[in-house]
Amino acid sequence: MALAKELFDAYTSGSRVDVAPTAREGGCDLAAAYAVEAELTRMRRAEGRTTVGRKVGAANKAVWRALKIETVLWANMYDDTVHYAENGRASASLARMRAPKLEPEVVMKLKSVPTSFDAASVLECVEWLALGYEVVDNPFPDWKITAADLVASFGFHAALVVGTPVPVDSGNIPALVDQLAAFTVRLSKNGELVAEGGGKNVLESPAVCMGELASAIAAQGGAEPLRPGEVITTGTLTPPPAIAAGERWEVVASGIDLPALTVEFRP
Fold first, then answer.
1. How far apart, in whole angstroms, are the C-alpha atoms of residue 103 and residue 160?
2. Where are the domains of the chain?
3. Between 67 and which of 82, 120, 147, 188 could a Cys-Cys bridge form, CB atoms 3.0 to 4.6 Å apart?
4. What DSSP letter does each residue of the chain carry, written as one string?
């Protein structure tokens, strides 16, 4: 598939792609974009990489309306793109990235696959959750976004940094259902507040967003099913700011017991 090869080469080299797939003659619809995503996954596996989870995109119904979609978007994440902080701190490289942005998110690890999609049922399938940062990178001009362009280019996934995990069990699920719908976050750069947000920005709760992803993948013909052990992002909690090497970013949550996460970005 020529388009997959072009986007794969751009991803590995860090080069830009001047014309997005949807802007080309013949265009690219969402079904074709997921076929490209599947081919990109095959190519990464052929390099020896392993898929370790999925990133969620467009976890907000206002974005759905703008993109003319009816559910969340998704793409695979890999063993060389998912990283774990130590004691709430990490360093991450922006090498080969074109126009990176930062998405503070709640990250979940599945211990089983949800078959009911309300918040409590989803959390029964979750081993742990944590604050995290997804670094997203758009290879196309001017950060213009369409659903198909996003999916076809690795879901714009460049990296994920996962903070300190908090175990989920039957004892804390009732509280987490309420907390995930109400908690807030503050995102700071070099000690200065940049953005505020919270769980309501992702389909009213990250747990609901996880359920939406599980439902969408189950209904999508040809999609690889979710599997236990996958790490899942659940959508950005704040507007995503642009980032650059040399910056230190911190996200702090209120209203839920998720440890803060600090990341310093290097070239």
1. 9
2. 2-266
3. 147
4. -HHHHHHHHHHHHT---SS-GGGSTT---HHHHHHHHHHHHHHHHHTT--EEEEEEE--SHHHHHHHT-SS-EEEEEETTTEEE-BTTEEEEE-TT-SSEEEEEEEEEEESS--SS-SHHHHHTTEEEEEEEEEEEE--SGGG---HHHHHHTGGGEEEEEE---EE--TTTHHHHHHHHHH-EEEEEETTEEEEEEEGGGTTTSHHHHHHHHHHHHHHSTTPPPP-TT-EEE---SS---B--TT-EEEEEEESS----EEEEEE-
Burial class (CB in 10 A: 0-12, 13-18, 19+), 56: buried
CATH architecture group of domain 2-266: Alpha-Beta Complex (3.90)
pLDDT at 67 over 90: yes
Q: Is the pLDDT of residue 217 over 90?
A: yes
List pLDDT tens digits, range 123-134: 999 999 999 999
CA 250 from chain centre, in angstroms, equals: 18
What's the whole-number mean pLDDT along residues 1-28? 96
Give 41-51 pLDDT, tens digit per residue: 999 999 999 99
Does residue 1 surpass a pLDDT of 90?
no
Model's pTM, two decimal places? Answer: 0.97
Strand partners, 266: 93
